[in-house]
Design brief:
The complex is a heterodimer of chains A (482) and B (299). Chain A is of the alpha/beta class and 482 residues long. Chain A is built from 16 helices and 24 strands. Chain A has two domains: 257 residues, Aldehyde Dehydrogenase, Chain A, domain 1, CATH 3.40.605.10; 187 residues, Aldehyde Dehydrogenase, Chain A, domain 2. In chain A, the strands form seven sheets. A seven-stranded mixed beta sheet of chain A has the order 14-15-16-13-12-18-19, with helices on both faces. In chain A, strands 9-8-7-10-11-22 form a six-stranded mixed beta sheet, sandwiched between helices. A three-stranded mixed beta sheet of chain A has the order 1-5-4, with helices on one face. The radius of gyration of chain A is 22 Å and the shape is globular. Chain B has 299 residues and is an alpha/beta fold. Chain B has twelve helices and eight strands. Chains A and B meet through helix 10 of A and helix 1, helix 2 and helix 11 of B.
Chain lengths: 482, 299
């Protein structure tokens, strides 16, 4: 009998010949692409090979002024006066155009951010379109969202989004703001500006009135100008807790509203009566989805002692089957780390974990020479007192502890400055209710992890944020109820 | 020798098992890896005919096909075995002489298993005496569902003993066990009791081999190896008719059990029409064009 000793998957790269990318992207202000006023451009690179993809205009103070002025004008003259049903039509149009060009968007998202094409294709882009569809439907039904009240738009909203889900976060921010009648100045993250610029093209194609959506690029400095601008009615921010705190301080006393989606250090809890093989899969999804660049990642694992040995052994085996490499390959499970800065931070934490006495297990996968890469990593022999258990790493690094009783694990799960998400794995419904009631986190997944839906609100307790996004709760952050 | 087996020692979550399957099946297998997989899958087939209307002539034709899958294209492997009813074992044995292809026979009152243990053991002995290399038995599902796991386990042990040197495949008939928890428990019982292979279905009950069932059984095989060091084989049967499905299952084996199981010694497909679909795909990969079904023999 003929035997094939090892059967390896041949490379299966998604083609890039169908995408349209320009060498240079300007700012999108008042419905047009315009250069930055001081002529400054920065490079955006592909983190999987460090190659430059395009130049992107960097918005200075004058450009922020222009963008806010254009948003204000659009708000006063057009968008706030338009019948809600018409607003909805525009948003539906954006959703449909995004769906039509889904393949192009997923490839660009993967090129610019390093995430595997499987995720950008199956998660980021479809969910982004779903957010536009969902909120388009709300535009003319706000009286049903807030019965007995009238929902008035806030005005001009400044939105600052992170690099981990660039297009999806743009959709999370834009869709509810537009549906409720606000106009927007959006600033994408400086390492991942491209899908937002492609979205600007769609917005232009959808014939949205000029100035309703303005998209400007730049780093922290640009964001500061936006946050501190006097004619902004609200800041919506997703990103680090440090920046979140800065924003809260800056807008204090200004009358600006704010919603903040910040960091997390979610507890993922495996009870001994869980379906173990599926729970192991859940651990993988919780921490290694998007290279662990997920604010709600299940980065603290708690396993009940009776099954700890089995769970950890199975987890290690499963980690060894993860395919790390070319993000464009359709079989890739783990892509590139988003930036050099983030990679350095992850390395720093892993060094710290080792120095603190944690036991490290890393998969033996070979990593590409060029680009930013980090192998899936877990730490055992750690405790609540370890910094790698306390602080958000935002990478493929999991800290594992064991526990004995339900009360103990609830106490430990809550023993964190964060409270964004959590997971519980058990066959017992009563335990699910108990644990999810007692853990102070915005979302608790039961026997699953990292599931998102536009109708479901997402937001955190404590240092994980203020306000929610998604669902009716998310809408309420963009309106004044009178 | 009743085993003390607690019900539901190992729970399976249906929803997540399905999700895992979907993810495994989304692997993109192209070019060289596809060609390798197609050859491998061919070599893992138990070419099967299990019909009341089977005749010696039919079995002879199938046996010839087993070692002459597509003579116009040299270099193809033979299938692993021919799977027939007990009374067809002698003719299959004779027809396959010198080919290296095994003869597998169903036994133990296949497909229902509704006979007493004495009759079952006699049947097993007679097919082994007639030269069967492999015995495909069915478990007593009625006993299993009524919670009489000890009976099921004892029966398998006795059949195993009756098999002598012949390899024993234990058919769980997962379509009648209904839940994945049951599939897992039945797999554990069968392996503990001495199965060399565990097999999903008879092909007579729908659903036959479904992907979550196969995944559950592969995970049981993996855990059994971790616990005992023994390598048990796996055979999904029924409902696997396309090359695409076969490749998807190879992905599932590779990522659940590892490359070691990618061998006819430890994995089989019980199928009747699968071989031709794989052959069509091999010719398509080679020539760049699909050929009509009429170019592939239908024995």
């Amino acid at each position: 009998m003929k035997k094939v000793k090892t059967w390896e998957y041949s490379p299966a790269p998604e083609s890039t010949d169908h995408i349209q990318l320009k060498d240079k992207y300007d700012l999108f202000i008042n419905g047009e692409f315009v250069p930055s006023s001081d002529g400054k451009y920065f490079d955006t690179i592909n983190p999987s090979n460090e190659k430059k993809i395009a130049e992107v205009a960097q918005a200075g103070k004058a450009d922020v002024e222009k963008a806010v002025a254009s948003a204000r004008k659009a708000y006063d003259k057009t968008w706030s006066k338009m019948p809600a049903k018409e607003r909805g039509k525009y948003i539906f149009r954006i959703a449909r155009l995004l769906q039509e060009r889904a393949r192009e968007f997923s490839v660009i998202e993967t090129l610019d951010g390093g995430k595997p094409i499987r995720e950008s294709r199956d998660v980021d882009v479809p969910l982004a379109a779903a957010h536009f569809f969902y909120h388009a439907g709300w535009a003319d039904k706000l009286e049903y969202a807030f019965p007995g009240r009238t929902a008035k738009p806030l005005g001009v909203v400044g939105q600052i989004i992170p690099w981990n889900f660039p297009l999806l976060m743009a959709a999370w921010k834009l869709a509810p703001a537009l549906a409720t009648g606000n106009t927007v100045v959006l600033k994408p993250a400086e390492t991942t500006p491209l899908t937002a610029m492609k979205l600007a093209e769609i917005i232009q194609e959808a014939d949205l009135p000029p100035g309703v959506v303005n998209i400007i690029n730049g780093a922290g400095e640009t964001g500061r100008h936006l946050v501190n601008h006097g004619d902004i009615n609200k800041i919506a921010f997703t990103g680090s807790t440090d920046v979140g705190k800065y924003i809260m301080e800056s807008v204090a006393g200004s009358g600006k509203k704010y919603t903040l989606e910040l960091g997390g250090k979610a507890a993922n809890i495996i009870f001994e009566d869980a379906a173990i093989d599926q729970a192991v899969e859940g651990i993988i999804n919780a921490i290694f989805f998007n290279q662990g660049h997920v604010c709600c990642a299940g980065s603290r694992l708690y396993v009940q002692e009776g099954v700890a040995e089995e769970v950890i052994a199975k987890l290690q085996k499963r980690m060894d089957t993860l395919i790390v490499g070319d993000p464009l390959d359709k079989n890739t499970d783990i892509g590139a780390i988003n930036s050099k800065m983030q990679l350095d931070k992850i390395k720093e934490y892993v060094k710290l974990g080792k120095n603190e006495g944690g036991t490290l297990y890393q998969t033996s996968c070979s990593l590409p020479k060029k680009g930013y890469w980090f192998a899936p990593t877990i730490f055992t022999d750690v405790s609540q007192s370890n910094r790698i258990v306390q602080e958000e790493i935002f990478g493929p690094v999991l800290a594992i502890q064991t526990f004995r009783t339900v009360d103990e694990v609830i106490a430990k799960a809550n023993n964190s400055p964060y409270g964004l998400s959590g997971g519980v794995w058990t066959d017992k419904g009563s335990k699910i209710y108990k644990v999810s009631q007692d853990i102070r986190a915005g979302v608790i997944w039961a026997n699953t992890f990292n599931k998102f839906d536009p109708a479901s609100p997402f937001g955190g307790y404590k240092e994980s944020g203020v306000g929610s996004e998604g669902g009716i709760e998310g809408l309420s952050g963009y309106v004044n109820l009178v | 020798m009743a085993l003390e087996i607690q019900q539901y020692t190992h729970l399976i979550d249906q929803v997540n098992a399905q999700e895992r399957v979907a993810r495994l099946f989304s692997r993109s297998i192209k070019k060289e890896s596809k060609m390798q997989a197609l050859h491998l899958a061919l070599s893992m087939i138990d070419l099967t005919t299990l019909e009341g209307k089977d005749s010696e002539g039919k079995v002879k034709q199938l046996c010839y096909k087993a070692s002459h899958l597509h003579d116009k294209y040299p270099g193809l492997p033979n299938v692993a075995a021919i799977c027939v009813y007990p009374n067809m074992v002698p003719i299959a044995k004779k027809s396959l002489d010198g080919t290296g292809i095994n003869v597998a026979s169903v036994a133990t009152a296949f497909p229902s298993g509704m006979a007493d243990i004495k009759a079952k053991l006699e049947e097993v002995k007679s097919v082994v005496d007639a030269g069967a290399d492999e015995v495909d038995m069915v478990i007593s599902r009625g006993k299993f569902l009524s919670g009489n796991y000890g009976y099921v386990s004892d029966e398998i042990s006795q059949v195993k003993e009756a098999c002598g040197k012949a390899h024993l495949k234990v058919i769980l008939e997962t379509g009648e066990l209904v839940t994945l928890d049951n599939v897992r428990l039945a797999s554990d019982i069968a392996m503990e009791a001495g199965a060399d292979f565990i097999k999903t279905s008879t092909g007579k009950i729908s659903p036959a081999a479904t992907p979550p069932v196969v995944l559950t059984m592969l995970e049981a095989v993996r855990d059994f190896q971790t616990k005992t060091g023994k390598k048990i084989g796996m055979k999904p049967a029924g409902g696997i008719g396309t090359a695409k499905q076969a490749i998807q299952y190879l992905v599932m084996i590779k990522e659940t059990l590892g490359s070691e199981w990618l061998s006819p010694d430890l994995f089989r497909f019980g199928a009747s029409s699968l071989a031709n679909d794989i052959l069509m795909q091999i010719m398509k990969q080679t020539t760049g064009q699909y050929q009509s079904k009429d170019y592939f023999s239908i024995d």
